[in-house]
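dumping this here so i dont lose it
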């Protein structure tokens, strides 16, 4: 198949590039090895839209972070995903460290971050009553925010798809070759693709693809971050995102509310070798707990409902590698996209799409659809809105996930929409069915029934998250209606 641009990877970066490219009159494809978008690092992070005071002035990280953070609010309205400007705080526990806090403020100002302020005295606990009384000063960044990383990525991808980008899921890229006549051949485990331009947004694997075509070798080390996610009962423990002073390994363990009302605590930062190493460990979670207690001794860790880990794509030079490879015309990298990659994604999308469009001398389309509507959210709707939804479709009155109040109507919508859910996790990321306190113990079988019915699938073929994750092992008996019961 022939394309103008092929994007490798449908994380938040690949999806943002796809959406921006879909503004142009170009034939674009996204190749993703997983069964859905947002299955890599984009699904396992702190979900913070950083204000932009951490990155070195002049770096790509600084430039993209500040621009991305400024774009996020308008984008959340355009594409209908949850985002909240809750503000962030960096705590300082020793008078001797106050110069470090001041240096962060100066760096933020150089980067163009607005409203930074150092807070001391009584105001500290007025801002955040539950934090430690050892806090001597803090840096307040009113433009820091939180976002739903799944909904952000899915919204970008859906909108790209509606605007004509082809997504090939379950398609693993095996090799990228430069063609003598110009352009590239991309070999996958399914078909071969020919393309004038490649956008390499393969997360922790971006070095592998860059090194196939460029002499400027990249080296990405996965840096693991482990987390505890706490019940919604703990969601009000803090209202801002609470950081400690950063170290050379990153921004450290934070405590933050999520846009959905949970409390998130983490991450650790450990360099590992395995690019698939997303298991949590007792040691890592122990470290999360002890470091979080430094910020707030009473952080309610007994309310943990799940734990998870994500991998930062740390490149040896520790900046984003963005743009056309010097020795590979038409090959654009989005490599080394560790934190603040989520915050930066809208800006990276814009930047790389402009570069690729310029290379291809592409023109903007007139019929670009810039908006998208999310699935109705019954849990947050008013009684009148719920009545209206049920009037149109009674399935919006049938609650499937009790913990998160997700209805059959929402699940059907998640399956039927563009780039719809095909697995239990796909439904979970789009609707939150399964994200509650019981972690899908109650709702999974009911969601599976809907998936099987909607997709005309044998229930034995249903998966949690694609290849290698079948949910049922066999039939135990047929019930009186002739329907087989499985386990
Ligand atoms: C612990 C942690 C905390 C973080 N917290 C934040 C935060 O709070 N704020 C922030 O701004 N940033 C944060 N980040 C960074 C942010 O999550 C990442 O920068 C961002 O998600 C990277 O997106 P991506 O699309 O580049 O990578 P990914 O989401 O990993 O996407 C890459 C995609 O490429 C696919 N792929 C790989 N190989 C192939 C292949 N051979 N063929 C086809 N497809 C392939 C993968 O399946 C994947 O879907 C954090 C990261 C971590 C690990
Ligand atoms: O630890 P860092 O610096 O990679 O940052 C990760 C998140 O952005 C904040 O937890
Ligand atoms: S019922 Fe769905 S998570 Fe508990």
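and the seq i came up w/
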């Amino acid at each position: 198949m022939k394309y103008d641009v092929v994007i490798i990877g449908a994380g938040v970066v690949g999806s943002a590039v796809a959406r921006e490219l879909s503004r142009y009159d170009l034939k674009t494809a996204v190749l993703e090895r997983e069964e859905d978008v947002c299955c890599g690092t984009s699904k396992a992070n702190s979900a913070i839209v950083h204000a932009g005071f951490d990155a070195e002035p002049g770096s790509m990280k600084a430039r993209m972070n500040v621009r991305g953070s400024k774009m996020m609010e308008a984008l959340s309205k355009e594409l209908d995903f949850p985002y909240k400007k809750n503000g962030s705080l960096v705590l300082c526990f020793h008078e001797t460290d106050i110069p470090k806090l001041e240096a962060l403020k100066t760096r933020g100002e150089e980067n163009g971050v607005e409203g930074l302020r150092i807070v001391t005295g009584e105001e500290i606990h007025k801002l955040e009553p539950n934090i430690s009384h050892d806090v001597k000063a803090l840096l307040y960044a009113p433009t820091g925010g939180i976002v739903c990383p799944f909904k952000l990525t899915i919204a970008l991808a859906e909108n790209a798809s509606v605007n004509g980008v082809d997504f090939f899921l379950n398609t693993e890229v095996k090799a990228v070759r430069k063609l003598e006549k110009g352009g590239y051949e991309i070999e996958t485990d399914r078909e071969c693709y020919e393309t004038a331009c490649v956008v390499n947004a393969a997360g922790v694997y971006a070095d592998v693809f860059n090194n196939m075509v460029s002499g400027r070798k990249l080296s990405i080390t996965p840096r693991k971050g482990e987390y505890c996610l706490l019940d919604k009962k703990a969601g009000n423990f803090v209202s801002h995102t609470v950081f400690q002073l950063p170290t050379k390994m990153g921004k450290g363990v934070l405590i933050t509310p999520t846009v959905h009302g949970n409390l998130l605590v983490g991450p650790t930062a450990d360099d590992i070798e395995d690019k698939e190493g997303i298991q949590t460990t007792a040691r890592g979670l122990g470290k999360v707990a002890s470091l979080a207690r430094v910020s707030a001794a009473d952080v309610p860790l007994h309310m943990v409902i799940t734990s998870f880990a994500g991998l930062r794509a740390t490149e040896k030079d520790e900046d984003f590698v963005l743009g056309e490879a010097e020795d590979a015309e038409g090959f654009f990298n989005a490599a080394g996209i560790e934190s603040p990659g989520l915050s930066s994604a809208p800006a990276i999308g814009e930047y790389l799409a402009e570069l690729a469009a310029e290379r291809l001398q592409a023109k903007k389309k007139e019929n670009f659809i810039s908006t998208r509507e999310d699935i109705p959210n019954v849990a947050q709707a008013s009684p009148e809105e719920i009545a209206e939804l049920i009037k149109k479709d009674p399935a919006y009155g049938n609650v499937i996930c009790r913990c998160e109040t997700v209805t059959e109507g929402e699940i059907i919508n998640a399956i039927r929409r563009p780039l719809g859910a095909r697995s239990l996790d796909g439904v979970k990321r789009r609707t939150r069915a399964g994200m509650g306190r019981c972690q899908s113990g109650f709702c999974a079988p009911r969601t599976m029934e809907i998936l099987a019915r909607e997709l005309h699938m044998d229930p034995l073929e249903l998966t949690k998250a694609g290849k290698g994750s079948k949910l049922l092992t066999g039939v135990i008996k047929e019930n009186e209606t002739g329907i087989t019961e499985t386990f």
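The two ends are 41 Å apart (CA to CA).
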